[in-house]
Design brief:
Helix content: over 70%
Order of helices and strands: HHH
Largest sheet: none
Distance between the termini: 73 Å
Number of strands: 0
């Protein structure tokens, strides 16, 4: 039983967060402390929307360039 508990403890220790994850969590907690939970959620949603808009814009440009390349050939 004790040996099984030791193995579980070792497995638990191996499954820790990466340094980057810990830094990100610390940053989010500081942001939440400063601006509140709802403002933090809104900021994350806004940044995600900007990223999605940029990806859609880049896909549209790729499609337009691909089509214009087909026409000129």
């Amino acid at each position: 039983m004790e040996r099984e508990t030791n193995y579980k403890s070792v497995d638990w220790l191996k499954s820790t967060l990466s340094e980057r994850d810990l830094e990100m969590a610390a940053y989010l907690f500081k942001y939440i402390e400063k601006f509140g939970l709802e403002a933090t959620k809104a900021e994350i949603a806004f940044e995600r929307a900007k990223r999605n808009l940029l990806e859609a814009y880049e896909r549209k440009l790729d499609l337009m360039q691909g089509r214009s390349g087909e026409v000129s050939q």
